[in-house]
Specification:
The complex is a heterodimer of chains A (about 800) and B (about 250).
Chain A lengths: L1 H27 L2 H11 L1 H13 L7 H24 L13 H30 L4 H25 L2 H21 L5 H17 L2 H4 L8 H6 L5 E7 L4 E6 L22 E6 L2 E7 L27 E5 L5 H8 L4 E6 L2 H10 L13 E5 L2 H7 L4 E6 L5 H5 L13 H9 L1 E12 L6 H15 L9 E5 L3 E7 L5 H14 L2 E4 L12 E2 L4 H10 L3 H7 L20 H9 L10 H30 L11 H31 L2 H30 L3 H30 L4 H19 L2 H12 L4 H26 L1 H18 L3
Parallel strand pairs in A: 5-6, 5-8, 6-7, 8-9
Antiparallel strand pairs in A: 1-2, 2-3, 3-4, 9-11, 10-11, 10-12
Helix pairs in contact in A: 1-2, 1-4, 1-5, 1-6, 1-7, 2-5, 2-21, 3-5, 3-21, 3-27, 4-5, 4-7, 5-6, 6-23, 7-8, 15-16, 16-18, 18-19, 21-27, 22-23, 22-25, 22-26, 22-27, 22-28, 23-25, 24-25, 24-26, 24-28, 27-28
Chain B lengths: L2 H22 L10 H18 L10 H9 L20 E4 L2 E3 L2 H10 L7 E5 L5 H9 L2 E6 L2 H13 L5 E5 L12 E6 L8 H5 L1 E13 L2 E10 L5 E6 L12
Parallel strand pairs in B: 3-4, 3-6, 4-5, 6-7
Antiparallel strand pairs in B: 1-2, 7-8, 8-9
Helix pairs in contact in B: 2-3, 2-4, 3-5
The chains are: A alpha/beta (about 800), B alpha/beta (about 250).
């Protein structure tokens, strides 16, 4: 039993390390980069299988010292690997320019793959050395991993990011200690190892693990200016927030301020999320003149069409949009902000600076996710405003391409419009991209949403304006009236903004102040409303098709056909390639390449090595490889699809990751435990058990596809714990059955060809890595439903492959 | 002391003297060790300009701009360890979270300013001082402001050493421009800006041009060209460093 505990502890440490790395790289570099590095580093899991093939005999009968060695090495290399990587001059932005960057990347892969290699090697060793206990060891492995996923998210709420690394290292040592304590004659060694375990957790200097933001992130650049310094920080798994005092040089954050009537913003504090995406807290002393500058941006448009509206701001951020609403004498202001730390900063820590904005009698700020809040809301609003909170440079260079955004989907727009009073308006401001991307996709999504609720002429309800930096889209609950149109025209004329689309406008009205080589926005918007909509989407050089909850990648615009054309322009065209999409393709390539090497290498060795002496039927090896490849791919397909689907229900990707990952691991662990009982106690053959499990997975997945979207919509108003319970209700049974094929296949292999066990383990590890990347790529292009269906196909294939 | 030793000393002294002269006035001549590299950098700029197609109606970079870039010793504007890459077709990090832009982008932005030899120009975000040096080659006076003290000091020393007497560097906040020397025929803003500072628009001469690259440090997404017409109104144009013809395929 203590040994199983040590397996669980090591597994928890490895998973916690994985999740922690995602956070660390999101702060140091950018989200997509984190994604690539970690996907490839996980190949360490696969590589451990390969390694075991070669050292299997050497460790025969030495499971405990071998396991302890792996766990200790994990405890050392997990922090050491990260610290080494942190010292490298790695720069995601330079990757297209600097030939050394790929080399640094290789070092990163190796440094970060090694800890995973050690942990997985130790667990793989346990599985090969104790074939009788495969089910229980695998169960402990998954339960531990699930606990690790939950624990790290909890830890990230409680302590600074840097401190968590010490805990993870300490847990690695603790796993080694537990393993040694489980055998009487090594007990003293075990107790000795508890010393570094506890020391790592308690004495770890936070600086050693604190991620340094890249010098090219907004925060680093801002801090170069003399006199600027961080005055407050908040840590959570959602984001690391750093509040910066501007010193003598004001931030003057006023995106897209009119060139015709710009006034200077008041003094501001800059709040940087993960070292990027700055939002400003304006100094406010009750004199609304300080907010006058906000009226000179495109986002102010709806206030010139509505009188004293009841406003809902989605994304309160630093509070600029609330100030704008106050400036325009809004009757009542509700604001939603997903990050409680942000609300705390504006509402209490810097409440004095912000003029007690959040304490204003007609303002209410809610900590919630936007979609969930709107769906649960019974009231109607005259204006729902979606603020501009992401960073321009990240959006401009396609760094968000892989981020799902449930804020801007057809379903989301439908939900917003349903909460508008008659004549009320939805207003969305986005960064302007050239060539037009964000603006047109918003427009397409809005038009699609209106059509889907039976509006025959969506064009009569839509208006799109632009400055040189931002676009603002208005979706009215009802046709835009002549006074509306007049007000929009005069708002734009006063501020030198361009009208991109208004019902009934002509092309010569479209491109006057901020000139593009053609009236692209007007032409695009008109085409998107017309009969040749599909043809336009097909022809346009970027993907601006409406986004849906099934495919919520609002920021992914790159079409692969355009890549060739851009590359043809030499380095002049590189600027328009989308970093996120390219990284994804690069990751898939690398994962597939390294994965193949890891699978093929042991294959050739097995043919020549000692294993060749063991006899197993021809075709057995092929069937086994397909079997483990298929279930490795399928498991992660389902997991990734579920994570992305449950973002909608749980409100934030980090919650979805924690709940889905933990749920899958724990229930799959239980399932694998049950699988061995099925065989031993009830006497069902392994093959039948796999087929049964596959059938159950199929039924449950289909059920999920059919009822989940509607159910999620209905559950938005439920409290978070209830939503988590529902999520686990979906995940539990599915994961339970998905936990069965691996140990059943492994047990079958153990009976027929024990030499193939580490190899099966390796294939499964490689397949998992490729699978995570592949699933994201498929979801980007075809949606989650397709990914889920493909997973079912793979399970069916696996079931057919397992021989009697 | 033998004769050989004397002549060796003479040669050494001569070499040192020549090197000193060459170093003091590299602006005057391109016949240093990097002249070839510089020439091929300019060829590359012309290649890219040809490949991306016309920007703002012009399908080549003005000869004067290219000639200026053939003269400015870019290798002296990058950190020592990157000297070998100074003329490569890429942006380079120069420390302080800053970069020196890709040569093509420097050429394109300079070209779009439509400079005349008698012009007075303002630059915001001196960085290494390379862009200022290119401007200094083309106009009568260039004023440049850098907010990061370390960069401002380095650039000022570098430009002075290279003999750019028509360039003035100031350390500080550029938001309010440089009113003592306003109005300017052209303004170039290479520092990140969430909006166009209104004081800069005021300091632009009627008929003048302002250019702002939009994007990240390593990748310019598009260029914002601000034009102040003689009769007052300010208009902007957004220019891609590449051209899609047409954006919607077909034709």
């Amino acid at each position: 039993m203590p040994f199983l505990l040590s397996v669980a502890a090591l597994s928890a440490a490895a998973l916690a390390y994985e999740v922690w790395l995602v956070r660390a790289f999101a702060i140091a570099q950018w989200h997509h980069f984190a994604y690539m590095i970690i996907s490839v580093a996980l190949l360490g899991y696969g590589a451990s299988g390969t390694f075991l093939v070669f050292v299997r005999d050497r460790f025969a009968g030495r499971l405990i010292p071998g396991f302890a060695l792996g766990a200790v090495l994990f405890g050392i290399t997990a922090p050491a690997g990260y610290m080494a990587v942190r010292a490298l001059p790695l720069n995601a932005l330079e990757i297209l320019w600097d030939p050394y960057q790929p080399l640094y990347l290789l070092v990163v892969y190796v440094a970060l793959a090694f800890p995973f290699f050690c942990a997985a090697g130790a667990i793989g060793l346990a599985l090969t050395q104790r074939p009788k206990s495969i089910g229980r060891i695998y169960c402990a492995d998954l339960l531990g991993a699930g606990a690790g996923a939950l624990a790290i998210v909890g830890a990230l709420f409680l302590i600074p990011t840097g401190d968590c690394l010490g805990l993870i290292a300490g847990l690695g040592f603790a796993a080694a200690a537990l393993a040694l304590i489980s055998t009487p004659h090594r007990r003293n060694w075990g107790f000795a190892l508890m010393v570094p375990a506890i020391a790592g957790a308690v004495l770890w200097p936070a600086d050693w693990g604190t991620p340094n933001p890249s010098p090219y992130k907004e925060l680093s650049a801002a801090l170069r200016v003399p006199g600027r310094h961080i005055v407050a920080e908040r840590h959570s798994p959602l984001a690391w927030l750093a509040v910066v005092d501007s010193g003598a040089t004001p931030f003057r954050h006023a995106p897209g301020l009119s060139l015709a009537r710009g006034s200077e913003p008041p003094p501001q504090l800059g709040v940087f999320a993960d070292g990027g995406a700055m939002t400003a807290i304006n100094r406010f002393d009750g004199d609304l003149k300080a907010a006058a500058y906000l009226d000179a941006a495109t986002a102010a448009l709806p206030y010139h069409l509505l009188r004293q509206p009841r406003v809902l701001v989605l994304g309160a951020g630093g509070g600029s949009d609330l100030l704008l609403a106050r400036y325009h004498d809004a009757a009542k202001i509700d604001a939603v902000e997903v990050n409680g730390d942000m609300v705390d900063l504006v509402g209490s820590r810097f409440a004095g600076f912000a003029g007690n904005l959040y304490q204003t009698p007609n303002i209410t700020v809610h900590v919630a996710d936007a979609r969930g809040f709107v769906a649960a809301e019974q009231r109607r609003f005259d204006l729902i405003q979606i603020a501009l909170l992401d960073s321009f440079s990240a959006a401009a260079s396609g760094l968000h391409a892989l981020n799902e955004s449930t804020l801007y989907t057809v379903e989301a727009f439908r939900s917003y419009v349903s909460r508008l009073s008659p004549g009320g308006m939805l207003a969305i401001t986005r960064w302007l991209s050239v060539p037009p991307r964000d603006g047109l996709r918003l427009f397409a999504t809005a038009a699609q949403a209106l059509r889907s609720i039976g509006v025959e002429e969506p064009g009569r309800r839509l208006a799109l304006i632009r400055s040189w930096k931002t676009t603002t889209l208005i979706v009215k609950n009802g046709p835009l009236t002549a006074p509306d149109l007049k007000a929009i025209r005069s708002f734009c004329a006063d501020r030198s903004f361009d009208i991109a689309f208004l019902p009934g406008m002509t092309a010569d009205e479209a491109n006057r102040f901020n000139f593009l080589d053609r009236p692209h926005f007007f032409e695009g918007a008109t085409a998107l409303l017309g009969p040749d909509r599909e043809a336009f989407l097909e022809r346009y050089k970027f993907n601006v098709a409406p986004t849906t909850d099934d495919r919520p990648y609002f920021f992914q615009f790159l079409k692969w056909q355009t890549v060739g054309e851009l590359l043809g322009m030499g380095s002049g065209g590189l600027h328009l390639l989308e970093a996120g999409s390219l990284m994804l393709a690069a990751t898939l390539l690398q994962a597939a390449l390294l994965g193949t090497v890891l699978i093929l290498l042991p294959l050739t060795a097995l043919r020549r090595g000692p294993a060749a002496a063991e006899s197993f039927p021809p075709l057995f090896r092929t069937r086994i490889s397909i079997y483990f490849l298929a279930i490795g791919l399928a498991f992660l397909f389902v997991e990734i699809a579920f994570i992305q689907r449950f973002v909608l229900l749980l409100g934030h990707p980090i919650y979805a990751v924690a709940v889905v990952l933990a749920g899958f691991l724990v229930f799959a662990g239980l399932g694998s435990g049950a699988a061995s009982i099925l065989g031993r106690r009830i006497g069902i053959s392994r093959r039948s058990a796999v087929r049964l499990a596959t059938m159950c997975i199929g039924v449950l997945a289909t059920l999920n596809l059919v009822i989940a979207p509607g159910l999620f919509e209905a559950l938005h108003s439920w409290p978070q714990p209830a939503k988590v319970a529902v999520a686990l209700g979906f995940i539990g049974p599915m994961a339970f059955f998905m936990g069965m094929p691996f140990p059943l296949g492994l047990a079958q292999t153990a009976d027929r060809a024990p030499a193939l066990i580490p190899w099966a383990w390796g294939i499964n590890g490689c397949a998992s890595v490729i699978s995570a990347v592949l699933a994201t790529m498929l979801a980007l292009h075809f949606g989650f439903a397709v990914v889920l269906l493909l997973a079912l196909g793979l399970y069916a294939m696996a079931a057919l492959c397992l021989s009697r | 002391m033998g004769r050989a030793s004397v002549s060796f000393r003479l040669i050494a002294a001569f070499v040192t003297l020549t090197a000193t002269i060459a170093f003091a006035v590299p602006k005057a001549g391109a016949n240093d060790a990097f002249a070839d590299a510089r020439a091929s950098m300019v060829d590359k700029i012309e290649d890219i300009a040809g490949a991306v197609g016309p920007v703002d109606g012009r399908d080549r970079i003005d000869g004067e701009v290219l000639a200026a870039m053939r003269r400015v010793p870019r290798h002296l504007f990058v950190p020592d360890e990157l000297t070998g890459l100074a003329y490569a077709d890429r942006p380079l990090p120069i420390g302080y979270s800053q970069t020196i832009s890709q040569p093509y982008i420097v050429a394109l932005m300079t070209d779009l300013l439509d400079l005349e030899s008698g012009d007075v120009v303002l630059e915001l975000g001196t960085g290494s001082g390379y862009q200022a040096a290119v401007l200094g080659e083309l106009v009568s006076r260039a004023f440049t402001i850098e907010i990061v003290p370390g960069l401002a000091e380095q650039a000022a020393a570098r430009l002075a050493q290279l003999g750019y007497e028509n360039i003035a560097v100031r350390e500080g906040d550029g938001y309010y421009g440089w009113p003592e020397h306003a109005p300017f025929d052209a303004i170039i803003v290479t520092a990140a800006a969430s909006h166009v500072p209104p004081p800069l628009v005021q300091q632009l001469k009627p008929g003048g041009r302002m250019i702002i690259p939009v994007g990240t440090r390593f990748s310019v997404q598009h260029l914002l060209l601000v034009e102040k017409e003689a009769d007052g109104p300010v208009r902007t144009r957004q220019l891609l460093p590449v051209r899609f013809v047409p954006l919607t395929g077909g034709h």
